[in-house]
Amino acid sequence: MTRPMEPADAAGTAEVPKPPTGVGDGRELLQWLRTMRDRHPVWRDGTTGAAHVFRYDDLLQVLSSPDVFSSDFSGIMPPPDPDAPNFTEGVLTMTDPPRHGKLRRLVSQAFTPRMVAQLEPKVAALTRELFDTVAGAGDFDLVTSVAYPLPVIVIAEMLGIPPADRELFRGWGEALLSTNYELPVGAVPDGTMPEHIVGQLKDMHAYLLGHVQDRRISPRDDLISRLVTAEVDGDALTDGETVSFLNFLLLAGHLTTSLLMGNTLLSFAEEPEQGKAVRADRELVPAALEEVLRHRPPVVFQARVTSRETELAGVTLPARTPVMCWQMSGNRDERHFPDPDRFDITRRPNQHLTFGHGIHFCIGTPLARMESRIVLNELLDRYRSVDVGTPVYYERSPEIFGVKSLPITVQPA
């Protein structure tokens, strides 16, 4: 049943409720997002000057218009810390056309759907190995035992990184994630980093750069080699651009699968009949994962900046205005999704915004979907019952929604 709409105040003249201090289990944040969708669909924060966009159609307009809503924040961010490694050189998510198109074509030559498909047997084997480490245990933590380490190991395999160095990747992933821990929900990151994080990122940059330079001299059968040898119209990736992509792959690649698996079990715990339906019919697994992505998206929002003055939903946005795109809100918009707060694995269509839209649609989507499908099927194969325990610990970053620890109690099949 669709909830009646409240009158909108696009100009933002009515009092705006304060956002919750953190994402947590999402309940307070979802209530705030519902209020903002109804009363302040496009809201300019008088303190920061940033605009916040909450409705699906408005989000689609922003994400579909890179000429107006730029991904390049270099013009409004402070100069980068000269002591910190530059991980923004040529990052796809922070680059505009025409350079973005060439970068994406170069990366796509190496990071292909065929390559992801060829990885599937290896991912399945790695998943079984991780579950084997907790075989016989009636209780274990799904995230720390399987969902978190799996994508890190997979990425290391893709890059041709020695198994002994996998723990380095896990530590660097944590460091990258923690850079925004102290920011409030919806805040615009200012690019500054604590000194101890800078040190870890320096180590990571040097490590990845070493592998990139090695592959230029001695290519192998791995993703780094394919990246450094990719060419479009005589153009190739620089060392800095290659390292930036590898950094992004590490952060985004390991987070999405880890958070998605935890969110899937939480969704099934809240709606057990939906979980039973998936167990009874494995053909429902892909659709169930898509509904989890809509209902409990790992990514809360993403940012853009206006390249010129524009108008959105009746609100004038000056040039150089940061724009926070609340995908989590768009995924719950009653104007687009009937009964949006209901978790429904049979929902059709399900055009959620979790992986973005337009030219910046997430290039790693096939990998995240494949890993999550394999983990969920393996879990259902091994155990006839899976119950979520306590305590559940949520991630602290204001940009993501999910758990960092999820104890479960299982009974073998």
Automatic annotation (TrEMBL):
Belongs to the cytochrome P450 family. GO terms for biological process: cholesterol catabolic process. CDD domains: P450_EryK-like. This is Cytochrome P450. The keyword Heme applies. The lineage of its organism: Bacteria, Bacillati, Actinomycetota, Actinomycetes, Kitasatosporales. InterPro entries: Cyt_P450, Cyt_P450_B, Cyt_P450_CS, Cyt_P450_sf. PROSITE patterns: CYTOCHROME_P450. PANTHER family: BIOTIN BIOSYNTHESIS CYTOCHROME P450, P450, PUTATIVE (EUROFUNG)-RELATED. Keywords: Heme, Iron, Metal-binding, Monooxygenase, Oxidoreductase.
